[in-house]
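User: Can you predict the 3D structure for this chain?
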Amino acid sequence: MRLRLPNLRRLLRWLALAALAWIVLSVLLVLCLRFVAPPTSAFMIGRHIDSWIDRERDFTLDYRWVPIAQVSGNLPIALVAAEDQKFPQHHGFDVGAIQTALADAEDGSRLRGASTISQQVAKNLFLWNGRSFVRKGFEAYFTLLIEVLWPKQRIIEVYLNIAEFGDGIYGVGAASDRIFRRSAARLDPHQCALLAAVLPNPRKLHADRPSAYVQRRANWIERQVRQLGGAAYLRP
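Assistant: Here is the predicted structure, written as structure tokens:
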């Protein structure tokens, strides 16, 4: 049944208003999180839901926010060396890495991720896991908001606090205590490299019981940190 023209106009008006309201609210949310520690993240909520569905009665989620001033300077640069070496220069997207990944896919290689740290913050904080074009569109939108509204230091601060370093272990506060039995401020370069090394699959890779692969990757990360110039690489 076709909508009459007045009804169609009314529907379009309501859709436009809803879209505008969503944009305004999302901007306000991202702006607020520039100054306020996130109480949780979309990925943490998703992990809770998974544990309820799978009836994991022993599952506990550990998340403790630690200001970046109280985190060892070895960790931010280790994360950048491992995940996104162009982090200080790009504006949310590593165009070169995206082009390389697409070229590899065209040659028959498995399509690999080319996400920046900014994109990972957007995804982990606001969105669900998946590979749909809809989710990628929302990821790009929130990435742009984060890059426009947050300084780089805030982006890396949020990332090291919401990244999963073990099953149910979110952020450096929980990871440093649970894995290494020390504060985030006292992590040494190798421990930070181990934490960065498990990020591709923190539920199967372990920083406290590193496999040969994790050890090799951690050693590679430490070499990359030295080549980048250490923590000074991230200074404005």
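The longest strand covers residues 164-166. The chain is about 60% helix and 5% strand.
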